[in-house]
Amino acid sequence: MPIQYYLFLSMALFSIGIMGTLMRRNAIIIFMCIELMLNAVNLLLVAFSKMYNDSSAQIFVFFSMVVAAAEVAIGLAIIVMMYRKVHSVDINILNRLKH
Amino acid sequence: MNLYEVLFWLLTVVAIGSALGVILSRNPVSSVLFLIVTFFAVSGHYVLMNAQFLAIVNIIVYAGAIMVLFLFVIMLMNLNADAEPQKNRLVQLAGVLSGGILFLVVLAALKTSSNNLLEQTATDIGLIKNLGMTLFTKFVLPFEISSVLFLSAMIGAVVLGKKGEPQK
After folding, report:
1. DSSP A98
2. Is residue B90 part of a domain?
3. Is residue B43 part of a domain?
4. For residues A86 and B51, what is the distance between their CA atoms, to the nearest angstrom?
5. Which of the listed residues B18, B48, B81 is the one where a domain comes to its end?
6. Which residues of B59-93 are buried (b: 16+ CB within 10 A; e: fewer)?
7. What's the complex ipTM?
8. How many whole angstroms separate alpha carbon B39 and alpha carbon B18?
9. Chain B: nearest CA to A88, how far in angstroms?
10. What is the least distance, in Å, from the CA of B127 to any CA of chain A?
11. Hey, are the CB atoms on A63 and B146 less than 8 Å from each other?
12. Residue range B28-40, pLDDT digits in tens
């Protein structure tokens, strides 16, 4: 299996994540698209680990999962706090910060 | 076309299809379920690339812990209605265009990058013994630092989630 196939697959997943981040207004869906982008990068790291027969890249995937777990805990806490204040998770509400 | 390639294409179609489902479905709960399907397909890819331990960890951490947290928050906020306000058409089109153009640019740049093949023979670098040896010899300092990261994330989540009393 050529490495390009994995490159294109993870790039497609990453682009879908970017499209979702730009298209949707629900803060939770945007957050899920960020998780999708992180997973695309993890997939590519595992493919390179297989290509070079080296397990360091898999340790990097492990650390990026750690960061993703911490990020989800903080991010969902922020979203819950925002919902408590404005009773909505619509990100367009947040441009009140401008005034 | 051997079994490896059949599985590769099957998992690829499932991953991309359900990733599209995440961003196109109106209901947040079905978005979460589509994302879980995507994570399972990615885990299947990990197994195909001999990263068995990461496949299991991916299912446990992502599909098991993170997505349950998402589902929990969505249910808690009672958001499982279909009445999500949409961005206007122009902004949506701009989002799709910029994502698609990024995909095309990277595709064109990497089309002739390298001709390395992933061998279909089994290796044992993804087994827990080898990963543990690498983690606790070469990467032991980042491992310890990540525990501090977890502690600060935990404290931060508790502080943020606490009901704030009015300041004096």
Report:
1. G
2. no
3. yes
4. 44
5. B81
6. bebbbeebbeebbebbeebebeeeeeeebeeeeee
7. 0.91
8. 9
9. 9
10. 10
11. yes
12. 889 999 999 999 9
Give the confidence band of B80 by pLDDT, cuts at 50, 70, 90. low
pTM: 0.89
The boundaries of the domain holding residue B157 are: 123-162
Same domain, yes or no, for B1 and B77? yes
Contact B22, A18 (CB under 8 A): no
C-alpha–C-alpha distance, residues A47 and A97, integer Å: 42
Here the tokens at position B17 are 């299809």
**What is the amino acid identity at position A11?**
M
Specify the pLDDT at position A59. Answer: 92
Tokens of B32: 């979460």
Closest among B154, A77, B26, B34 to B42, alpha carbons compared:
B34
| Cα→Cα distances B154→A63, A71, A73, B41, B158, Å | 17, 10, 7, 30, 6
Residue of chain B with shortest Cα separation from A64: B146
B95 located within any domain: no
Interchain CB distance below 8 Å, A69 and B70:
no
- Amino acid (1-letter code) at residue A74: I
